[in-house]
Automatic annotation (TrEMBL):
<dbReference type="GO" id="GO:0008270">
    <property type="term" value="F:zinc ion binding"/>
</dbReference>
<dbReference type="GO" id="GO:0000034">
    <property type="term" value="F:adenine deaminase activity"/>
</dbReference>
<feature type="binding site">
    <location>
        <position position="275"/>
    </location>
    <ligand>
        <name>Zn(2+)</name>
    </ligand>
</feature>
<dbReference type="GO" id="GO:0043103">
    <property type="term" value="P:hypoxanthine salvage"/>
</dbReference>
<dbReference type="GO" id="GO:0006146">
    <property type="term" value="P:adenine catabolic process"/>
</dbReference>
<dbReference type="InterPro" id="IPR028892">
    <property type="entry name" value="ADE"/>
</dbReference>
<feature type="site" description="Important for catalytic activity">
    <location>
        <position position="218"/>
    </location>
</feature>
<protein>
    <recommendedName>
        <fullName>Adenine deaminase</fullName>
        <ecNumber>3.5.4.2</ecNumber>
    </recommendedName>
</protein>
<keyword id="KW-0378">Hydrolase</keyword>
<dbReference type="GO" id="GO:0005829">
    <property type="term" value="C:cytosol"/>
</dbReference>
<feature type="binding site">
    <location>
        <position position="276"/>
    </location>
    <ligand>
        <name>substrate</name>
    </ligand>
</feature>
<keyword id="KW-0862">Zinc</keyword>
<dbReference type="GO" id="GO:0009117">
    <property type="term" value="P:nucleotide metabolic process"/>
</dbReference>
<feature type="binding site">
    <location>
        <position position="16"/>
    </location>
    <ligand>
        <name>Zn(2+)</name>
    </ligand>
</feature>
<dbReference type="Pfam" id="PF00962">
    <property type="entry name" value="A_deaminase"/>
</dbReference>
<feature type="active site" description="Proton donor">
    <location>
        <position position="197"/>
    </location>
</feature>
<feature type="binding site">
    <location>
        <position position="194"/>
    </location>
    <ligand>
        <name>Zn(2+)</name>
    </ligand>
</feature>
Length: 340
């Protein structure tokens, strides 16, 4: 692993906390909670991580998270992720969770948000690792279910920064959630949505125009629509791209055909993220490394992506200025000359 990547100060903007459940922890929590899994052991579970598309992954992902029952379970999962992130020089992280995947199993929202939030707060105090929490609606469920979830989250409003939209993209367009997003906007939530992962470029247009999101999660399908690319570049709409996820879910067949550099050189604010690192073969460093080794990205290009993440994050302007200076200074010390 390159020292440049290891030591680069990083910001993560697209991370599903339930996607950080490593097989060892799935089994440890299953034992703790007296749950019998469909898989005999960790090896059998890992063998199921051979995905052919998004849906085949989601089927395993929703099964894995059934071991999460208590506030302590959510704390332990989140803390394990934060320890890894801290070790990889992640300075700030913006985390998704899927409330409906837990409340539909009878787990109280207070246990979910309480456990995640306690770990985030401990990381802030212990390491100065800052964070934001994003509540993500499952788009394969109904508008009514999303509205109920928004309503149930009211007591936790101060712990949540934004809302997102994830799960099965095809057949569940942004238009299904226009009213929910309008209501969340009224309540002051910041807005993001997964779009253009497996779905068409039109879903990216719709997420921007109908849902009024400020960031697009994935968005790699934009490469197929020249006008959309021009718009994303002109409006500096950030894309939270997840290279290893795209490879594992066969959005691209080889890392060599990943559109990341095309998008970067067209002037888009592309960022590097890990999505569901326990399932896709790596955390932040591994994603930067995949771009370096599989696509030939230079240290200068990787540095620009890291700076883009600072630009796209939800820290205050003052905090962003501090982080930007740190990342730029890191690049300069490595001999990289930035254009501006
Ligand atoms: N990559 C992904 N796309 C859509 N929904 C998800 N939920 C967790 N990971 C996801
Ligand atoms: Zn995602």
């Amino acid at each position: 692993m390159s020292t440049f990547i290891n030591e680069l100060p990083k910001v993560e903007l697209h991370l599903h906390i339930e996607g950080t459940l490593e097989p060892e922890m799935v089994f440890a929590l299953a034992r703790r909670n007296g749950i019998t899994l469909d898989y005999a052991d960790e090896g059998a579970l890992k063998a199921a991580y051979d995905f052919k598309d998004l849906q085949s992954f989601l089927d395993v992902y929703y099964q894995g998270m059934q071991v999460l029952l208590t506030e302590q379970d959510f704390f332990d999962m989140t803390w394990a992720y934060l320890e890894r992130a801290h070790a990889e020089r992640v300075r700030h992280t913006e985390i998704f969770f899927d409330p409906q995947a837990h409340t539909d199993r009878g787990v109280p929202l207070a246990a979910v948000i309480g456990g995640i939030h306690r770990a985030l707060e401990q990381a802030r105090q212990q390491w100065g690792l800052s964070s934001r929490l994003i509540m993500s609606f499952l788009r394969h469920l109904s508008e009514e279910s999303a509205f109920e979830t928004l309503h149930h989250a009211e007591p936790f409003r101060h712990q949540l920064s934004g809302i997102g939209l994830d799960s099965s993209e095809k057949g569940n367009p942004p238009s299904k959630f226009v009213r929910v997003y309008a209501a969340a906007r009224e309540q002051g939530f910041r807005l993001v949505a997964h779009a253009g992962e497996e779905g068409p470029p039109q879903y990216i247009h719709d997420a921007l125009d109908l849902l009024k999101v400020e960031r697009i999660d994935h968005g790699v399908a934009a490469v197929h629509d020249r006008h959309l690319m021009e718009r994303l570049a002109r409006e500096r709409i950030p894309l939270t791209v997840c290279p290893l996820s795209n490879l594992k879910l066969r959005v691209v067949e080889h890392m060599g055909e990943h559109p990341m550099l095309k998008l970067l050189h067209a002037g888009l604010c592309v960022t590097v993220n890990s999505d569901d690192p326990a399932y896709f073969g790596g955390y932040m460093n591994a994603n930067y490394q995949a771009l370096q080794q599989g696509l030939g990205a230079t240290d200068g290009e990787l540095l620009q992506m890291a700076l883009n993440s600072v630009e796209a994050c939800w820290l205050s302007p003052e905090e962003k200025a501090v982080l930007t200076r740190e990342v730029r200074a890191y690049g300069e010390a490595a001999g990289i000359k930035l254009k501006h």
